[in-house]
């Protein structure tokens, strides 16, 4: 009974990590990109794209983990 409850709670573990690390990675990417592009729009799009990439990676890892 408890094993099923733990599996439900840990189901989307990598999705949360992907969002967090994707947001941090996107912000770092925006900082580096801002040195070469003199537009403030970099700060609006790069963290969101990093978070999106992190979500996709997290979903793929969670899906593969749950197949086992």
What descriptive keywords fit this protein?
68 residues; mainly alpha; 85% helix; 0% strand
Architecture overview:
With 68 residues, the protein is mainly α. The protein has one domain. 85% of the residues lie in helices and 0% in strands. It contains 3 helices and no strands. Helix 2 packs antiparallel against helix 3. The longest helix has 26 residues, at 42-67. The protein is rod-shaped. The chain starts with a helix and ends with a helix. The model has no long low-confidence stretch (mean pLDDT 83).
Percent of residues in helices: over 70%
Number of strands: 0
> What does the radius of gyration come to?
16 Å
Mean pLDDT: 83
Strand percentage: under 5%
Count every helix, treating DSSP H or I runs of 4 or more residues as helices. Answer: 3
* Total number of domains: 1
**Secondary structural class:** mainly alpha
Order of helices and strands: HHH
Shape: rod-shaped
Question: How can the largest sheet be summarized?
Answer: none
State the distance separating the first and last CA atoms: 19 Å
Poorly predicted residue ranges: none
Gist of the model:
The protein has one domain. It is built from three helices and no strands. It has helices spanning 2-9, 13-36, 42-67.
Q: How are the SSEs ordered, and which strands pair?
A:
Layout: H1 2-9, H2 13-36, H3 42-67
Helix pairs in contact: 2-3
Transmembrane segments: 12-36, 42-61
Keywords: Membrane, Transmembrane, Transmembrane helix
